[in-house]
Design a protein that fits this description.
- With about 325 residues, this protein is of the alpha/beta class.
- It has one domain: Alpha-Beta Barrel (TIM Barrel), CATH 3.20.20.30.
- The protein is about 45% helix and about 20% strand.
- It has 11 helices and 11 strands.
- The protein has a 9-stranded parallel beta sheet.
- β1, α1 and β2 form a beta-alpha-beta unit.
- The relative contact order is 0.13.
- The ligand CCCCCCCCCCCCCCCC=O binds next to β9, α10, β11 and α11.
């Protein structure tokens, strides 16, 4: 099991964007230097609101890779449907070389109709566009060249420079954004990153669909390692943890889930993430990992107000990982 961090980079009221980004930079630098049992950092992509101020996760990842020596860093959910795939392939290949192959490519379909319209993409052919983009990116990364002649892209064979050194060894993850994307990923045995804000029930449904499609197509997915983003806010006072998480998440829930009962969605997130006291997270998290076939856990501490408390939790997790290592 691998443990890492992920960053949503919400910008709460009365907090500057500099503070939000400095928090991510400082936390990543600290973990890279002092907490060797954390291996990964992934940056979330969100557009056009304070509920995620990073619209260019690969750019953020490149800065963080430049700052660090050990961690594998990348995008949690780089949207490819609304981006030119050659640009993504060039950025990924460049970072692969400049970071000594520490870059991770987390990819996503577009999950926002406004963005599909804004970037002038056809919603009625979205899945096909997503798949076409992926094929170009994957061909470019794994063979150094790509070409396309389909309904979405038409260009001659080009060289992607600099050539990707990792090629098929570059870690790729697919955000489990829809049943059709999950079914497509299963046929390719590509690992999933679950959407942190999906209910556990929805994540489990997607995981079971993944297994069914793989079985029906005789695809061996037994060694595929899915990722589980987990919000963490631990406090000896459970009410403080719940209140901090509620304050941090409320605006995002209102933006992304306007049709849902806001209190019910908040209560679901709090119960299904590591939010409460030290006694409130272990069994529920183990259960969630098992129900979703997750082998990697990504932690976000961003809702915790006290920096020292965050470091204490990271230290606790790091020590427990150490104690659980096979050689311990
Ligand atoms: C990051 C992390 C966090 C926790 C753990 C593990 C890891 C890796 N473990 C598991 C614990 O360390 C130990 O493996 C199990 O509790 C089994 O312990 P014994 O073998 O019975 O001593 C753990 N166990 C537990 O009972 N309560 C807890 O809160 C936690 N938290
Ligand atoms: C504070 C939040 C921490 C959530 C992590 C809880 C998940 C624990 C899973 C333990 C599995 C065994 C660990 C194996 C050690 C590394 O390989």
């Amino acid at each position: 099991m691998n443990f890492g961090l992920f960053f949503l980079n919400f910008q709460p009221e009365n907090t500057s964007s500099e503070t939000v980004l400095d928090n991510m930079i400082n936390m990543v630098s600290l973990v890279d230097k002092d907490y060797k049992n954390f291996t990964t950092v992934l940056v979330n992509e969100h557009h056009f609101s304070e509920n995620g101020i990073v619209g260019a996760p690969i750019t953020a990842a490149s800065f963080l890779l430049g700052l660090t020596e050990r961690l594998h860093i990348g995008s949690l959910n780089q949207v490819i449907t609304t981006h030119h795939p050659v640009r993504i392939a060039e950025e990924a290949s460049l970072l692969d070389q400049m970071s000594d192959s520490r870059f991770i490519l987390g990819l996503s379909d577009c999950i926002n109709d406004f963005e599909m319209d804004f970037f002038k993409r056809q919603r009625d052919s979205q899945q096909l566009q997503f798949e076409a983009c992926y094929e170009i990116i994957n061909e470019a990364i794994t063979t150094n060249y790509c070409q396309a002649n389909n309904d979405f892209y038409n260009f001659p064979r080009i060289s992607i420079n600099p050539h990707c050194l990792s090629k098929e060894n570059m870690k790729q993850y697919i955000l489990a954004s829809s049943v059709s994307v999950v079914e497509w990923a299963a046929k390719k045995a590509l690992p999933l990153t679950y959407r942190w804000s999906d209910s556990l029930e929805d994540k489990e449904i997607l995981y079971k669909r993944y297994l069914d499609v793989a079985a029906n197509h005789n695809i061996d997915v037994s060694n595929v390692e899915h990722q589980f983003p987990l919000l963490v806010n631990l406090n000896h006072d459970r009410d403080v943890a719940h209140q901090e998480a509620t304050t941090y998440l409320a605006s995002y829930i209102a933006e992304v889930y306007p049709h849902l009962n806001q209190q019910q969605k908040m209560a679901e997130l709090i119960s299904q993430h590591a939010i409460g006291t030290d006694n409130d997270y272990y069994e529920s998290t183990l259960n969630a990992l098992e129900r979703t076939g997750s082998k990697n856990v990504l932690l976000s501490f961003e809702s915790m107000k006290n920096h020292d408390d965050v470091v204490n939790v990271i230290n606790m997790v790091n020590e427990k990982i150490q104690k659980n290592l096979p050689s311990s």
